[in-house]
Amino acid sequence: MVHALLTGHDGLLGDPVAAWRELAAGPGGTEAASAFLGYLALVTSMRPADRTAVDTEQVWWTAALDAGLPPGALAGAGRFAAALPDQVWLPLARRSAAHTPAQEDAGRVAARAAAHPREADALLLAAHLLTRPGPDGAYDDDVRRHARALLRAAEAPPAPDRPAETAQLRRALVEAGEVDLAHAPATTD
Questions:
Q1: Measured over all CA atoms, what is the biggest interatomic distance in the chain, rounded to whole angstroms?
Q2: Around 138, how many Cα atoms within 13 Å sit in the side-chain half-sphere?
Q3: 83, 89 Cβ separation under 8 angstroms
Q4: Looking at the chain, which terminus has fewer C-beta neighbours within 10 angstroms, N or C?
Q5: CA distance 128 to 108
Q6: Does the reported pTM lie above 0.85?
Q7: d(CA 33, CA 69)
């Protein structure tokens, strides 16, 4: 499948949404879909950085989001953190984390999101990453550290200039155990 996509023969696979649904319906479907998405991201990240054609990856990642895959099937999308331009990556990464909060390479995803404190998608992406199920110390440390940095940067402008999603990120951090933020005032004007 990946070979067909990356060699420009994606038409052989048929409708992308249907292909994702078929993959997810098979044995180990959730894991297979996540692995395929992660592999597509990995191969994409090895391509030249100055290339302009990200259409195949964008089409197939969007199709995975639109396919109604089972929970966990989009964990491999985290590997796209080093693969696509911000304007393509950020909205797709946010949607993937909303579907599957436990993203592969979550620390890297959170670090990239932290570079965009004025973007609603970045704030929501970080908030989703904080809601992943189950404790994992290394995951928590990286994601929380980057989410806190993102929150500080998002709260730096005067209140009227802050993205509305800043409050959601603060709440997600508090719910993830960063209780010191519950009573700390947002950065003042």
A1: 56
A2: 5
A3: yes
A4: C
A5: 14
A6: yes
A7: 8
